[in-house]
Amino acid sequence: MSRFREMIEMIRMALNAVRTHVLRSSLTILGIFIGVFSIIAVMTGIRVLQSNLESAMSGLGANTFQFQRSPAIHFDDIDWEKILRRRRFFAANMKRIQEKSTLAQAVSATASFGVGEASSKFARTNPNITGVGVTPDGFITQNWTVLDGRGFSEADDTSGRRVCVLGADLAEKLFPLGSPVGQSVKFCGISYNVIGLLARRGSLFGQSRDNFLAIPLGTALRLYGQSLSLSIQVQAPGRDTYQDVLEQARGAMRTMRRVEPGIEDDFEIVSNESSVGQFRDLTSAIRLGAAVISSIALLAAGIGIMNIMLVSVTERTREIGIRRAIGARKRSVMIQFVAEAILLSEIGGVLGVIAGIAFGNLICFLVQAPPVIPFDWAAIGLGICSAVGIIFGTYPAWKAANLDPIDSLRYE
Amino acid sequence: MSLIRIENLARHYVMGTETVHALRGVSLSIERGEYLAIMGPSGSGKSTLMNLLGCLDTPNEGVYELNGENVARMTDNELADIRNREIGFVFQSFNLLARSDALHNVELPLIYAGLPPKERRERARATLANVGLGDRMHHRPNELSGGQRQRVAIARALVNSPSIILADEPTGNLDSKTGVEILGLFEELSRRGNTIIVVTHEEEVALHSRRVIRIRDGLIAADEINREQRAVVGGAAVALSGITPLFIA
Fold first, then answer.
1. What secondary structure, in 3-state letters, does A359-406 show?
2. Is B114 within 8 Å of A2 when comparing Cβ atoms?
3. pLDDT one digit per residue (tens) for chain A, 412 residues
4. What are the residue ranges spanned by the domains of chain A?
5. Measured at the alpha carbon of residue A297, what is the angle toward residues A296 and A302, in degrees to the nearest 5?
6. For A88, left (φ over 0), alpha (ψ -120 to 50), or beta?
7. Are A121 and A134 a contacting pair, CB within 8 Å?
8. A327 and B112: CB-CB below 8 Å?
């Protein structure tokens, strides 16, 4: 009990000491602040992007993967020529995958056929609307929810009907007052009948993912030619069968594209998990850089703390003598000075964590994502601060505790 | 049993190649309630004796028993606890913590004794009131006069009810009028049963004690009873009005 009381007293004394030298303390605190701020800001920023990515990645449904020509996220040293030389996926490929993937729950294909202006009798948009062709199962594999109306039927697809469903942003712009279902929309010069409205999917990295119009793939192929480049989505019935479904479909795709055994795939397989993983790899360099910078900053700040504590011990030699004379043990003096070092460090740490989280979350406005509070990094940051205080405060404190009481009482 | 029993106490310091013999074998016993002055010119060894008596230092040779405990063989932590419990220091230059107010200065020994805050504050308040500073509790040392500062220091020395009050030139930094007031306070404390040891080189100060020990060249040159003890009446009585049995306890 009295130990606890002593600790409280030491903390109060340390606070007092920090308060007495405001300028000196703030400069010391600033060093720690910068170190903690840099790491927390970067980690928060990455966490925001990552959670945004995880909640919205590429719009694939659960346990779904996609065949496509180019990777979803790529590094600089990618061989673009190789990728551009890869053959496209055609409707026939999808049919074949559908037949061969006996384990799959749903197989679909999509193709974007153009970017342009859309208009209704109420409004017209900028020419930045994406048009996509989708097979009926694409609603399942891409996790699209129909809010109003219906999705595509097999008949829509096979007979190439001129019907469409609208993304939420586009629907809002073209039909600000009521439901778009049953109305007509003109896209790139062709009119479509609106049969459905999709639920909002949100934005990814600041780009709206609801600013599009989808028509049946069969319609798109008829209007824009059979050579449209397709992406093919395959959904497994569950997590446990995912790997099997993936291998089966991959084998079928390799056979179809005549990839010799032992040669790498001439296509990419993308899923939410693989995209998030790639994002992690991509940001690991940034994380490492932030860790290095803040370690250097914290080391410098720690040396600053040690310096200021040594000055403080010399200045307060007489005080130490008085305390020893009236019964302070060496340990008490030691605790007092270590507590002071930790306190300096922790003030910087707390401010750094707060400012770092605030700054890191500025990226939220950029990508329109909800803010993130990385509690684990906050705890790590504060833990590191305590360690810095202990590591760099121990020697000055030890020096203080081992001063000779008689000499220090006489010290001028 | 004597409060303090010293036998053949010796202390030397090694300075470079030379060894300085500050105390060469001092024997002494002091009873509870004595009011004693240790006198000697500078370099006589009286400061060394005071440091040893105050458990700030340990002897090279000899025995020092305080309350029957052999202090000479104690560890650093044990000495710190003895200083906290048994000894109250009063210094020439007051040695108060400049950034703390009077109350906190007086509380300090109780903090290291591990008393709960409420009790600490009460005892410190009572002790400060007893030295006549009831209205100066929240003043810092630089807001107090020399005499008041020394009273704070005395209150700090008293607050733990120690066995000995050890004063090193307690009037050295005070004008003569204030000095007399402080000596009056010591007299009153002595009358209440406290053991007081004053280290001084001023005859004036020594005359107020009942026993004078003169040190010269590290040895006791004289140990005499002061038959014509000088008393300060009046001032002390004012300073100590409203005294409580705290000191006797």
1. HHCCHHHHHCCCCCCCHHHHHHHHHHHHHHHHHHHHHHHHHHHCCCHH
2. yes
3. 466 777 787 788 888 888 888 898 999 999 999 999 999 999 898 888 877 776 655 567 778 888 888 776 665 667 778 878 888 888 888 888 888 888 888 899 999 888 888 988 888 888 889 999 999 999 988 888 899 999 999 999 999 899 999 999 999 999 988 889 999 999 988 999 999 999 888 776 667 788 899 999 999 998 988 778 888 999 988 888 888 998 999 999 998 888 888 888 888 888 877 777 777 787 888 888 888 988 998 999 999 999 999 999 999 999 999 999 999 999 989 999 999 999 999 999 999 999 999 999 988 787 777 788 889 999 999 999 999 999 999 999 999 999 999 999 988 7
4. 2-55+277-410, 87-266
5. 95
6. beta
7. no
8. yes
Tokens representing residue A361 in the block: 């979350």
Q: How far apart are CA A209 and CA B102, in angstroms?
A: 70
Q: Does residue B35 sit in helix, strand or coil?
A: strand
User: In 10 A of CB B122, how many CB atoms?
Assistant: 12
Q: Chain B interface residues facing chain A, Cβ-Cβ under 8 Å?
A: 51, 54, 56-57, 76-77, 80-81, 83-85, 89, 91, 95-97, 99-100, 108-109, 111-114, 116-117, 156, 160
Spatial distance between the Cα atoms of A194 and A214, rounded to a whole number of angstroms: 10
Q: Are B96 and B153 in contact (CB under 8 A)?
A: yes
- Candidates A318, A326, A333, A340: best to mutate against B (most CBs of B within 10 A) is A326
Distance in angstroms (rounded) separating the CA atoms of residues A383 and A212: 48
- Interface membership of A321 toward B (CB under 8 Å): yes
Question: Which residues in chain A have Cβ-Cβ distances shorter than 8 Å to B109?
Answer: 326-327
Residues 333-362 of A with CB under 8 A from B: none
- Which residues make Cβ contacts (< 8 Å) with residue B6, sequence separation at least 6? B26, B27, B28, B29, B62, B63, B64, B65
Q: Which chain A residues are closer than 8 Å to B95 by Cβ?
A: 318, 321-322, 325, 409
- Chain centre distance of CA A225: 38
- Which of B112, B116, B156 has the CB atom closest to A328's CB atom? B112
Count the alpha carbons within 13 Å of A188 in the hemisphere toward its beta carbon: 17
Helix (H) or strand (E) holding B171: none
Out of A5, A319, A327, closest to residue B84 by CB: A327
Residue in A closest to B98 by C-alpha: A319
Which tokens is B77 given?
A: 């932590």
- Per residue in B156-215, pLDDT (tens digit) is 999 999 999 999 999 988 998 999 999 999 999 999 889 999 999 888 888 889 999 999
Contact residues, chain A, for B112 at CB < 8 Å: 6, 323, 326-329, 332
Q: Average pLDDT of B38-66? A: 91
pLDDT in tens, A241-259: 888 998 999 999 998 888 8
A318·B95 Cβ contact <8 A: yes
- Nearest-angstrom CA–CA distance, B49 and B199: 9
A20/B112 Cβ within 8 A: no
